[in-house]
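Backbone-to-sequence.
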């Protein structure tokens, strides 16, 4: 016979909790047979030492006790055919008990929150101006423009706007180069060389290297500052050279 778990007989390893555990029917039968055999062995050893009346009494007690035990075992065997339904019902009752416990705990937590946490809770003041505007006009004019920009795509440019934009870019960027000019000082042309630094030994001189280094370190302002300082230094150097030559040539007789 396939072992059948009997619910509520003892606290076994498979179950537990308030409703008791379960034990295998085969294990229960083995326990009962082993107990009966042990009692019968002990009775066979003790009966020869007793009188005839005591023997009859002990045999009767053993028979009645064993008969009652096996009658209960027979009832369990007959009942084991419907043990699956009982086990399913026990699981349903356990689930319902757990749900009831969760409901009780939830109610307790909500009551504690209402009594302790939400005592000083207050609702914010309602935005009446927005509500009146929405109810009367069906829209809200104070809504930030960034919301519309994120949700509603902007209208595409027309053909004339595209031509105007390209024509304007042609004056700023020509042939992929942006030219910056400072009157009576310098004119610098910048471009992008495929993401690589603008250092080529056959094209760059020392000034271009300095401008590129400042451009990479401090951006456009750093490059312009370096070029401005260079132009001023060059102008001062040129003025010094011209003054020195005048002092040596034309003004040598007038200067001591």
């Amino acid at each position: 016979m396939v072992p059948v778990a009997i619910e509520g007989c003892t606290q076994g390893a498979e179950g537990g909790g308030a409703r008791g555990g379960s034990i295998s029917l085969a294990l229960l039968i083995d326990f009962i047979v082993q107990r009966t055999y042990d009692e019968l062995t002990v009775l066979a050893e003790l009966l020869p030492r007793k009188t005839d009346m005591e023997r009859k009494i002990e045999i009767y007690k053993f028979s009645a006790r064993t008969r009652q035990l096996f009658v209960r075992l027979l009832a369990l065997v007959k009942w084991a055919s419907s043990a699956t339904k009982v086990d399913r019902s026990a699981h349903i009752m356990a689930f319902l008990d757990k749900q009831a416990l969760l409901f009780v705990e939830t109610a307790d937590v909500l009551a504690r929150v209402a009594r302790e946490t939400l005592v000083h809770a207050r609702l914010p003041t309602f935005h009446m101006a927005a509500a009146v505007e929405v109810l009367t006009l069906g829209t809200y004019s104070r809504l930030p423009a960034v919301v519309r920009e994120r949700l509603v795509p902007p209208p595409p440019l027309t053909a004339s706007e595209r031509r105007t934009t390209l024509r304007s870019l042609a004056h700023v960027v020509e042939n992929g180069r942006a030219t910056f000019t400072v009157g009576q000082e310098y004119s610098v042309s910048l471009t992008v060389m495929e993401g690589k630094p603008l250092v080529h030994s056959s094209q760059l001189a020392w000034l271009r290297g300095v401008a590129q280094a400042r451009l990479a370190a401090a951006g456009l302002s750093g490059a312009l500052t370096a070029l401005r300082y260079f132009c001023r230094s060059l102008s001062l150097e040129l003025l010094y050279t011209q003054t020195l030559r005048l002092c040596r040539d034309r003004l040598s007789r007038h200067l001591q």
